[in-house]
What we know:
- Keywords: Oxidoreductase.
- By secondary structure, the protein is of the alpha/beta class.
- It has 8 helices and 7 strands, in the order βαβαβαβαβαβαααβ.
Amino acid sequence: MAGWNLEGRTAFVTGGSRGLGFAIAQALLDRGAKVAIAARDEAAVKAAAGRLTAGTRAENVLPVVADVTDADSVNSVLAEVHAWQGALDIVVNNAGPQLTPSPLETIDEKNIASAFDTKLIGYVRVAQAALPLLSRTGSGSIVNVVGATAHMLIPNAGATGIVNAGVVALTSYLASEGAANNIRVNAISPGMTKTEGWLTKTEAMGQQQGKSPEEVRAGMAQGLGIRLNRWADPAEIGAVAAFLASDDASYVTGQVLRVDGGMTKPVA
């Protein structure tokens, strides 16, 4: 079994049908957890569950349909997940919108409001529904997915940066409130990662520039100053989320772990 042992744990991952959410769900499953994945698209989340269970028993994965912008939907699905195994140990807040890059000077305020509603307030809705159900025995953990725009200036990514900075603050406040019930709350902040969306995007960029997708990604890695000089594999992000949810991180709470290959460069 890879890495941290999560046998006997029940996990819930939002935005779990693709991208980082799928990779995190896979990492949790590989380490022994039973995993419920949520997305708005029923066909997509069921297809994702099929891919996840290709190497394991189908009863270890529960696909559920949920809309994180709807509190009733969130409350209902968390109750369903808790009833599934009679427990809830791990919650991963990952669902978020894909925003078109735009300067704040010209972005439609509705796009910013939608991003807040889906990601930041969506995370709040999930946390509010999950906290009464999470284990108080030490296995209760929330992992929020942030993003590098919370820590560094990326051109035309102001809306994303504002939302992600809010998630950083949310993580700290939730960790403070959850501590009384022995619930840990942390965040991971991924950098450039080879998700389906980025693979498609860099392929299109390569066609425009007369380059291969690999050359495009290499150029971006250099331009962004990524110390490891490469993009992350989604599994590398999933492994860190699994670590934070495991007993090996039992004394870690209120922290944001930057999983970005050294793209962001704090000195203190």
